[in-house]
Write a structure and sequence with these properties.
This protein is mostly helical. Helix content is about 45%, strand content about 0%. The chain has a domain of about 50 residues. The longest helix is centred in the middle third of the chain and has 16 residues. The protein starts with a helix and ends in a 12-residue tail after the last helix.
Length: about 140
């Protein structure tokens, strides 16, 4: 308890100890420019049409970014093997292709078929049971 009653021996800092350069006063010319009594003229802003400023032409160098979607699906082993075989054929022809690109090429081919040919191609595909396979 005796230690708590002991007065602090360090002197308190005084205002004189602070350097005089700590207080910055802006020049009088800048204070006059910020005066609240003067309002800037609104006429120059009204001369520009808002529609011209809002619409910007798209940049020719940057195409719009396409949003990607990740998905998973079930495929029989023999169809998956066909993907690998098609990839090998493309490599032999000198074209490097990914599985997703190969699937997209198939979609592109199917989308160009007439309705009757599309229905005929879809009917040839084996119907699969949806969902994950049972654990063995």
């Amino acid at each position: 308890m005796a230690e708590e009653a002991k007065p602090n021996t360090k002197p308190a800092p005084t205002a004189a100890a602070k350097p005089a350069t700590a207080i910055k006063i802006p020049p009088p010319a800048k204070q006059a420019a910020k005066s609240p009594t003067k309002k800037p003229a609104a006429a120059p802003l009204a001369t520009k049409p808002k529609a011209a400023r809002v619409e910007k032409p798209p940049k020719a160098g940057k195409p719009k970014k396409i949003k990607m979607v990740r998905d998973s699906f079930t495929m029989p082993e023999n169809d998956y093997a066909q993907l690998a075989e098609l990839k090998k054929r493309c490599l032999q022809a000198g074209v490097h292709i990914k599985k997703s690109e190969l699937l997209r090429a198939g979609l592109l081919s199917l989308s160009r078929l007439p309705n009757a040919a599309l229905i005929k191609a879809v009917e040839q595909v084996e119907k699969l049971k949806t969902g994950r396979p049972a654990k063995s």
